[in-house]
Fold this protein.
Amino acid sequence: MKKIKQFLIALIVGILFIPSIYALNTDNYDSNANTDLNNQNSVISNNVDDNEINNTVVSDEVENINNEVQQIDEEAYVQIGDKTYMDLQQALNEVTNGQTIKLLHNIESDNGFGRNLEQSAINFTIDLNGFSISTNSSNPTLTISDGSTVTIIGSGKVENKGSSAALHVKKGKVTLKGGEYISSAKVQATQVGSNDVLDYASELVIQDGATIKGACGVSVAGTNSSLIVQGGLIDSTDVAISTSSSANNVTVSISGGVVKGPTGIGLWSNSTLNITGGTIIAEGIGINSNYSVKNSNINISGGSITGQVGIYKPQDGKLSITGGTITGEIGIVARQGEIEITGGTIRGTGNPDETIGVGHLSHRLKKGSAIIVDNESTNYGEDITVVITGGTFDSTSDDCVSSFTGEEDTDDFDINGGSYNHPPKKDYVPEGTPEVNVTQDGNSSWHVGNDAQKAVDEAVKKGDAIVDVLEGDITVEAAPDGFIVKNSGNGNVSVNGKNVSKNEEYVVKSNDMQNVDITNPNTSDNIYIMFILLMVSGFGIIYIMKKGLIDVN
């Protein structure tokens, strides 16, 4: 009986596990071995037939839809979502907040396109999708007047072959992330705001991927309007960027991109230019203005400005330079207003034996200076000041900074800082202001104010140098062997703790022990002395302990 029970249990276990094992053994599965079971399951067979029929119908429908879409693409010009349009203007009228208008073909018109003042402001995108929008008209090709926020993406073109702008942001904000914007006539390729009296506070943002080409790249013409250049290219045949004489509170901000033209930027009254980055390249003048312009302010903290003249400042207003690089045959020509320089680099690269004409004046200014102040002409205001507390000034002329008035006018300059490759004129530097001449690696440079002490500290780090203290108090610390310090002025000068008297020259030598400060643990000499003292003390204690003079218990 016990054996029968064991057999039944084994039989039940086998029945339960054999199908599972069979199913898992897929390597030995024969697809033809179960034909009887398939023939018996007529329901499954019928369902498979239905699915095949359904799949055939779906496939036909997809093919038909594809054919219809292909047919629509061949006929439609614009698409918003699933809806297509034959007319771009209709798409602009019907686009809703958050949608994208996508071009499907090149579009041409005699009148231009846009959203008008009566429409509600929304946020939408235009995808050029490799195609173009062009007109041959006295109207702008594309106008945004309803206050909308618009982003334009994709490769392609917006072009005006007539006598107006390719893009006019009359009221609203437009960001260009792609495309070319071209005007064939001698007008602006893009315009921000309106040059009438209306205050629309418009804004144009240019980013990488966008290119603007025209006689004037961008005209900022509306009161309270702004241009923000973060990237891209503005390439003009006249003035790359211009503000308007009829607008108030106009702002141009450049942080990236390239601005090119015979003139880089032209400024009119009541405008502000902020440059924190980017590159401005001009055949003539990098930043230009007019003597009649009032309240025009320029702030430069980065970027690069290059031209025959880097900056021409005949206008009223303030030029503030804290960084960046300005390069020209003359770096800066100033005739009115205020200039304050605390940083940056200004270079004059011209031949000092040649002259240059700037503005309406004939050739009379010698090339090569970093800065020239010229207020001789009666067309300009008499009040002009240049205050320098920092920056680097390089010139091919002996005069890095100079004044041209027929006679020297020393009231124009107040130099309390900066570094120069030629000595600034004594009359420009207030009495008692520190000034040093540093000669190192075969090059000489002059440093004034706080930059004097900084230049000396940097020279010590580099090694051998000759420092001539021309004026003021200077302290030289940790100077290496061979370092030379002269005191040509009346100030207090010291080297490694040793005073250098007037007209005295001092050469640092390592065996000059009176110059070693043993209280300073940072010098190798002091560390060596401390090590010797500790060794001597240690041996002394060991000797005393061995002699039994100290009870170690």
About this structure: The chain has a mean pLDDT of 82. The helical segments are 2-24, 35-40, 42-75, 88-94, 450-462, 524-546.
